[in-house]
Amino acid sequence: MSGNVVTQLFLPLSLAFIMLSLGLALVVDDFKRVVTAPKAFVIGAFGQMVMLPALGWLVAALWPMDPALKVGVVILAACPSGATSNLLTHLAKGDTALAVSLTAVISVVSVFTMPVIVSVAIQHFMATDAAPTISVAGTIVGVFMVTNIPVMTGMAMRHFQPALALKLETPARHVASVLFVLIIVGAVYSERANIAGYFAQSGLAMLILNLSVMAGAWILAGATGLNERQRTAIVIECGLQNGTLAIFVSVTLLGSTTMMVPGGIYSLVMFGTAGVFMFFVLKRARLAAKP
Predict the structure, then answer these.
(1) Distance between CA 206 and CA 209 in Å, rounded?
(2) What is the pLDDT of residues 166-187, one digit of tens each?
(3) Which CATH class is domain 3-283?
(4) Distance CA 182, CA 136 (A)
């Protein structure tokens, strides 16, 4: 399969299917919780849409790496949470309803915020002659087509054909997980000649970003008086990003395989740190339950 076919066809279609699988699990009430339980949502949204991009920008600015990698860090930090964050929140006994609401709403809002953040990052970190051309409006349309349209399609199926949607939800999630792995492996393989150098430049930076945002979310949620289940949901939502979307924006919309590397590395790192965090909160819950 040629690189052009992968970036222009397979990657967008795969991302669209992943977002469709997310839509199959969503209902309108997931958006209503923004109004009915605003405090936890606002704190989670602040963590993901303000704290994470700010930390991403700080890491990119301070860490010595290729300018395109710096932009890639910002792209990843500007993405919404990944589709698996809701499942991991459930497994960690967190507030799954809150996690679903954050994923649903921020996936919609980030379509408009991410292109602006990325455009500013390109102008700031890259020399004019090396910077790719980015149309904010075009990027909004491109991201909307492969994220929001599939999510709305999945939600429509869940609303009008609930039995079919529930039947498809689990196998669709499994297929989406396989596609996600294939995209990450493909991203790493496509840059195999440079991946060691890129990993040396940005690998530790992405681990620091991931740990920083998870720790920041834990402290923020605790300081604002949220309960343990809400705290767990917000940490996972902030820590698990949509790496597939970051790769799509980098490769398909911006035409840069270098920019996709931080998103690929972060996607590998985040499941390890999420696993450690889940072990921590489940052990904490068991100890708290003992008489």
Answers:
(1) 5
(2) 899 889 888 888 888 888 887 7
(3) mainly alpha
(4) 28
128: how many CB neighbours lie within 10 A of its CB? 7
pLDDT tens for 56-66 read 999 999 999 99
CB 251 within 8 A of CB 11: yes
Instruction: Tell me the angle at which helices 195-223 and 260-289 cross, rounded to the nearest 10 degrees.
Output: 40
Written as six digits, the tokens of 70 are: 């710096």
Instruction: Tell me how far apart the alpha carbons of residues 38 and 41 are, in angstroms, rounded to a whole number.
Output: 5
**Residues ≥6 apart with Cβ < 8 Å to 45:** 102, 105, 106
Among the residues of 134-241, which ranges form H helices?
A: 136-146, 148-160, 162-190, 195-223, 228-239
AA identity, residue 140: I
What is the distance between the alpha carbons of residues 74 and 180, in angstroms, rounded to a whole number? Answer: 20
Tokens found for residue 209: 């970003």
CA-CA distance, 81 to 218, in Å (whole number)?
16
Q: Where do the structural domains in the chain lie, given as residue ranges? A: 3-283
Ranges of H-type helices in 25-161: 29-36, 38-46, 52-62, 67-78, 85-91, 96-125, 136-146, 148-160
Output the pTM of the full model.
0.87
Count of residues in the chain: 291
Which of 12, 13, 11, 16 lies closest to 151 in space, CA to CA?
Answer: 16
- Which token pair is 114? 């991410």
